[in-house]
Amino acid sequence: MDLYYTREDEEFRARVRAWLEANLPREKLETLEQQRAWHRAVYEAGFIGMGWPVEYGGRAARPMEQAIVGEEFARVNAPPTLNGLGIAIVGPTLIHHGTEAQKRRFLKPMLTADEIWCQLYSEPNAGSDLASLRTRAELVGDHFVINGQKVWTSGAHRADWGLMLARTDPDAPKHLGISCILVDMHAPGVEVRPLRQLSGSNEFSEVFFTDVRVPAEHLVGELNAGWQIAQTTLSYERGGNTLSRVSRQLALFHRLLQVASRLERDGRRAIDDPVVRQKLGQMYTEIEVLRYGSLRILSRLEKGIRPGPESSITKLYYSEMDKRHQELVLEILGPYGQLIEGAPSAYALQDGVAYGEPGSWAYGFAYSRAGTIYAGSSEIQKNILGERVLGLPKELRADRMQAHPATQAQAGGEGGA
Amino acid sequence: MDFEFSQDQMALRELARELLTERCTSAHVRAMMEDPAGYDPALYRQMGDMSLLGLAIPEQYGGSGLGMVEQAIVLEEMGRVAYPGPFVAGVVLAATGIQASGDEAAMARYLPCLATGELTMSFALLEDAIGWGPEVVAMRAVPAGDGFVLSGTKRFVPFGATADVILVVASTGDGPGDVSLFAVPRETPGLTVEPYGMFDLNAKTCALHFDAVRLPGDALIGDLNGGAAALDAVVQRGAVAACAEMLGCARKSLEMSVAYAKVRKQFGQPIGSFQAIKHKCAEMLEATENAHSATYYAAWALDAGAPDARLAVSVAKSFVNEAARKVCGEAIQVHGGIGFTWEYDLHLYFKRAKHLEPLWGDTAWHRERVLEEVLAGRVAGAAAGR
Ligand SMILES: Cc1cc2nc3c(=O)[nH]c(=O)nc-3n(C[C@H](O)[C@H](O)[C@H](O)COP(=O)(O)OP(=O)(O)OC[C@H]3O[C@@H](n4cnc5c(N)ncnc54)[C@H](O)[C@@H]3O)c2cc1C
């Protein structure tokens, strides 16, 4: 055991910090153009798609270097770069399963965010039970013809391309008739209808597909092998970079501490209330434990050990913890925690934030309710931990009892994009 | 960055596991409940022969010169079997006190025989009041001739009834931090032992009554009024040792629960297929893995002298206290009625974890310290906030 960062890591961190000091935008990025310019600058500095192989525009960086970048960017609350989903999920999927032509065509503009991607998995009747999806892709000559509906598609309204799971063999058992297809979001027959979220923002949409024609060469991997491919992409999503989450939680904590040192409650500063102190001590403790767990995963990644189903522990812990912490924020700050317009600077998370925009206490509180739903709900994570890590018997499920015997072998798969 | 155990550390774990599986069976643990000494001296000496006692003792004093991480590895194994014995009292608490006192004569005198197991020691801090700093010490050591006279009562002294020598914290000055350490042989006239019975019958503790106990000058360990720093080191290491033992209790309880949930059938199916049970087991796994990360991070931070070592210790103790309580308690729920029997071993772990929870700082005490460390900026370099 040696939990110090290596000299090399420290030097790398210093370079990232120096770059951020020189390049961090001073103003809020309002337009997509401004966001693209920021993304481009980060890309050119070499901080995007770092883990990708060099031949596809990446840096083949070590997991630790990627983690340090995530940590440092979150530490200074850098504006998000674009195309996170594409770069974290679609890119690795193509690198592992795509044809050479697909890699040449799609990877570079994905990295530069010249083409933005979304993930077309969930449907109205296929959420946790993703494999029951019904959007149909029929191979007609050299094209797929796609009909159906996706929902909760994050970023669909600004996406150029989508990574879709669609049913290509309706007669096969449910896990065996699914394919993974790249869909042009500007193609005729694609209709995106934005949905307003609880947070007030319009980040996800429902997407309708009516006779959308997709060239057959946009199939990823084998026909009807989409489920296996999706399993690997879901593990990228869950194995995600938790050090940047640690940084974000720490930033939240330190701002809460500042405000709690000013805010008077019941005749004394919040920070002088022993009950509040206990809760703050617990909050910090829980963040530190996330940090230790992240270092543990990183140290395994550095040795080439990919996190398996146990990465569900981090997803479960982080998302449930975030709910507790956001609730604590609102508990300590009382009505100030819910104030969006007119919030005094002394008590606000950030100034000048509108309803539905990140940067208010309440937005964080709202969003914490999503973290335990997307990328596999907490209940699904517990199923994964119970069944695939601890080896407990599967629950009796109606679909397993009726389906084709082959499904039984396949049906480890609960999903949730 | 390497959070994995080294080959040597894995081998140490195997060694400890083999020894304890063979020698510290459930039958042994239960027999020791009734035993007034509460432990098997032969097993203890064997640990000395196998170099398990001197892990954290410097090589020049007959130890292996390793640290808290290695001790934690062994203690986790001890937690798995609810080992009863004076390991923590001697080679964690007393040895840390002596080393942290900087008193080389005392180190040369005590550490080598602690490492072999020829000598057992304990550490006496608590009196009527509960607390973990020098301010709780009311017992005074009054100078008399070349030596000192001690009067008063120390409570909750671990394996104090059998320890050859007890390291006693006593007040020697007027300030609240003016405490000193004294090595007191248990056979000293005026010192009487009153054994306690604890909820965990294997956690032997006692009260020590000091009735004008006269000590020679060389009983003083370290500088006069210089005991606070040593006490602090003992609390830090005592807390991490408790974490490691609680972690072992949790890990064992989790394993037993999962194994049981696979075979016990109700309503025609294994109870582990019910989500209420499966999800409980998943949460127990989550708590146990997080407890592992917290315990070993803290142990490493102490060994490395990391800037966030105190923070890490308080994070670990407050977190593992709750994690182990939850896991050991829920294990009983997963087992149903059989989990509530004396016959079944779950209560051994449940009680050991509970025993350790208030010691060397309970959850609330450590949470307050976490906040103090953060407010003072003593956090890990890279994690420092804005
Ligand atoms: C903010 C946000 C962004 C999203 N972005 C995307 C995206 O970009 N692309 C995309 O494809 N999807 C996206 N999703 C959708 C997300 O993946 C699904 O919401 C998720 O998989 C859950 O599916 P569902 O909403 O249909 O809920 P359901 O599956 O109907 O679940 C409802 C409740 O039942 C529980 N439940 C379901 N099955 C089980 C079971 N077997 N055992 C125990 N409990 C169970 C769930 O845990 C949940 O509590 C997003 C969701 C959110 C909230």
Could you characterize the architecture of this molecule?
The complex is a heterodimer of chains A (417) and B (386). With 417 residues, chain A is of the alpha+beta class. Chain A folds into 3 domains: 7-82, Acyl-CoA dehydrogenase/oxidase, N-terminal domain (Butyryl-Coa Dehydrogenase, subunit A, domain 1); 117-224, Butyryl-CoA Dehydrogenase, subunit A, domain 2 (Beta Barrel); 240-376, Butyryl-CoA Dehydrogenase, subunit A, domain 3. Chain A has helices at residues 7-23, 32-44, 63-75, 84-97, 100-111, 226-238, 242-260, 274-302, 311-333, 361-371, 378-389, 398-402, 405-410; strands at 117-120, 136-140, 143-154, 161-167, 178-184, 190-195, 204-215, 219-220, 264-265, 268-269. Chain A is globular and about 75 Å long. Chain B starts with 6 loop residues before the first helix and ends in an 11-residue tail after the last helix. Chain B has 11 helices and 10 strands. Chain B has 3 domains: 7-119, Butyryl-Coa Dehydrogenase, subunit A, domain 1 (Orthogonal Bundle); 123-225, Butyryl-CoA Dehydrogenase, subunit A, domain 2, CATH 2.40.110; 229-385, Up-down Bundle (Butyryl-CoA Dehydrogenase, subunit A, domain 3). Chain B has a 4-stranded mixed beta sheet, covered by helices on one side. The radius of gyration of chain B is 21 Å and the shape is globular. The interface between A and B is large, with 59 and 55 residues. The structure holds flavin-adenine dinucleotide (FAD). Residues 118-119, 121-122, 127-128, 152-154, 204, 370, 373-374, 377, 379-380, 383, 416-417 of chain A line the site of flavin-adenine dinucleotide (FAD).
